[in-house]
Design goal:
The protein is of the alpha+beta class. It has three helices and twelve strands; from the N terminus they run αββββββααββββββ. The chain folds into two domains: about 80 residues, no CATH class; about 80 residues, Jelly Rolls (Sandwich), CATH 2.60.120. It is about 15% helix and about 40% strand.
């Protein structure tokens, strides 16, 4: 481990030889030391021994760029976290680093980064959860003809509805409680088999009609 200013001064032959050898040793050891060399040059290398970081001086000779972490115990070189990956034109195409688990599970960030199998599984599970039937169960809620209800469960739900039609009956859904879409319409009087509908999250749903009696209302929610 040695450092040198790489300036061979006028001196005796033996001193010059020692000075040259010191300069070569500094080059061979990448100017290694706990502190940066007193004299720096653009693009010179410095191995910082207390941090095990190999650094390179920038082109303007104003600062250091950390290149690698050197694992002296296991004789390995480690790429530093958040190292940017670029093409031959210097354009960034990715990052060698990780995201927080929440970034993977939301699936909204487009930056290419490292991901572990556990993070990938967690993201897939998070993005695929919430479907119909996941963590839901059937119940018989109290529902009335002509009353509007809203699905606020955070997931799609299913409603299974049967009724006795006297004049007419309509099963309807709406995204805004204003514009209604009719899913089923019945005009023949008498008992009708149960009709199943899926109600998206935050949507409204209802049964309207004339001289109609609800005989069954079950929900998967």
């Amino acid at each position: 481990m040695s450092q040198h200013d790489f300036d061979i001064a006028n001196q005796t032959a033996s001193s010059a030889r020692a000075d040259i050898n010191n300069a070569l040793q500094a080059l061979a050891s990448c100017n290694s030391g706990n502190t940066e060399p007193n004299t720096t040059y653009a693009n010179m290398l410095w191995y910082e021994t207390d941090t095990n970081l190999l650094k390179m001086r920038n082109e303007a000779d104003t600062g250091w760029i950390s290149l690698f972490y050197v694992d002296q115990t296991n004789n390995l070189v480690h790429i530093l976290d958040d190292t940017e990956v670029a093409n031959t034109s210097g354009t960034k195409i990715g990052v060698l680093g990780d995201h927080a688990d929440s970034t993977w599970t939301t699936g909204t960030n487009t930056e290419k980064r490292l991901v572990s199998p556990a993070q990938l599984k967690g993201a897939i599970d998070a993005l695929s959860s919430g479907g119909l039937g996941d963590g839901q169960s059937w119940s018989n809620p109290s529902r009335s003809l002509g009353t509007t209800y809203q699905n606020t469960t955070g997931k799609p739900i299913m409603a299974n509805i049967a009724f006795s039609v006297g004049n007419n009956a309509y099963i309807q859904v709406s995204s805004n409680n204003s514009t209604w879409i009719t899913l089923s319409a019945f005009f023949q009087s008498g008992l009708h088999p149960a009709q199943s509908i899926v109600v998206p999250n935050n949507h409204y749903y209802r049964v309207t009609g004339s001289s109609t009696t609800i005989t069954l209302w079950a929900e998967l929610s």
